[in-house]
Structures are given as structure tokens and as C-alpha cells.
Amino acid sequence: MMRLRSWLLGSLAVVLLAATQPQAAPRLKITLSNQEWPPYMGKELPYDGILSRLVKEAFARANVDVAFRYYPNNRTLQSARNGTVDGSFGWAPTSERKQDLLFTQPVLHARMVFFQRRNANFPWNDLSNLRHARVGVTVGNFYSDEFNQQVKAGHLIPDMAPDDVTNLRKLLAGRIDLFPIDMEVGQYLIARNFQPRLAQQLEPQNKSFWVAPLHVVIWRKHRQGPELVERFNRGLKALQDSGEFDRIVAETRAASLAYHKPIKTQ
């Protein structure tokens, strides 16, 4: 009888202990829109690029599996805003975007600079100093509140193109004077889309006009939207605290830079 009582008490203790332990969150599966923005994002890049890998790894640490669906640049964000996919990533917040999207903590920051033709002279201390400069912009991209204010004031003349490489070609041809883009992305695209004799004709300015935060965004009407944001933020912090974040960035950057695709003839 004593043995039976001991066994029952022991079993009850195990049940009570299990009941008080935090339960692991159920595993979720989501689809995020992606685009070509090497070396941060790209279908043919190792791990789909630096930012893509970080997003997947952070979500994985919070029990979320991520699949990518690739779109042209000007449709990538819209697919998240209308709920075609669960969300997207690599976007800076704006009041307009916040109407349709929930934003996580930033994953990385883009150093936005102006590229120009070599030896061109477009000095500035304030963006208003670039009065009447023809500036290439990519449809769907946001270049800071200050940039938009200068456009509205007529100090900057925007010239639209569907993608970044087209803008770089326009810059090379003299159809625009400046093109704003992340320093690393601009250098990567030039090196892999132009022959060396043409690539050397383009250069970035030395100073940045904006350091842009790159967030994951989730469709605001998603029934698990706030939970996905919370899970991602938790997974991102775990990734950063473990030291794995910096290792992944360095490893994926090296793999992306070593990736070679034939340069298109210009």
C-alpha cells in the first residue's frame, strides 16, 4: 500500500511539474515576398542573400518556418500590403506603409549614398543644395522623409525606373545625374552587371544622406500578425545575443561576394 501511495504521489508530482513548465509555441509556416537586391536578397545568391538568411534564422529560433516568393521590385511590398503573402522584409517604415503593415525591430541598416559618374561634381551639405539635379528613383522604394520633402519642394527632380540596374544604366548614359542606393548594393550591382571599362565610370559619393532601417513587415490584417512580430523580435534578439548574427553576416557576405554570374554585355 505504501509503495502504491509513493508511486501515486510521484506521478502526481511529475504531472504538476509538467503543467507548470512553459509550453513551446506551436510551429508556424509563413510566406514572405522577396526580391533581387544583392548581396542582401536574391534568388540565386547563397542562402538567398545576407538579409534573407538573417530573417529565416531569426524566425527559426521562434518556431516559424519561412518560404520566399520572389516578385519584381515594384510588386514585392504591394504583395505584403494586400495580403497576397504573409509579409515581406527589407523595408523602412513610413506612415503610409504602417496603415497596412506591422513592423518588427530592424534587422540591418542600409547606408544610402548617391552614385554618380566619375569626376562629376555634385557637392552638398543639405539635399536642397542638389537643386534641379536629375535623380533616378526606383518604383516602390522610399528614400527618406527629407528626400521626399525636397522632391515636393521642386529641389530634386525624380526620374523613375522599374529597378536599380536600369537606373545605373541611365546614370552611365548621362540620362540622370545621381542615383541613391545602399553603398554595398550599388557596388555589387555595378561589378556584376557592367564590364570593367564601364564599371569604373561610376562611383559613390563619400557621405551618406540616410541610414535606413531594414525591417520585416507583416500584413496588418493577418490573424497572427502581432504574434509573428513578437516571435521575430524574440528570435532576432536570441540570434544577436548568441553571437551568431555577426557570424552569419560575415559568412554570407563572403559567400555572396564569391558568387559569380556572367556579366551581361553592355
UniProtKB/TrEMBL annotation:
Q: Which InterPro entries match?
A: Solute-binding_3/MltF_N (IPR001638)
Q: Any idea where the Solute-binding protein family 3/N-terminal domain is? A: 34-250
Q: What PANTHER family does the record tag this protein with? A: ABC TRANSPORTER SUBSTRATE-BINDING PROTEIN, MEMBRANE-BOUND LYTIC MUREIN TRANSGLYCOSYLASE F
What does the UniProt keyword field contain?
Signal
Q: Which organism is it from?
A: Chromobacterium haemolyticum
Pfam families tied to this protein = SBP_bac_3
- Protein name per its UniProtKB record: Transporter substrate-binding domain-containing protein
Residue ranges the record marks as coiled coil:
none
Extract the signal peptide range.
Answer: 1-24
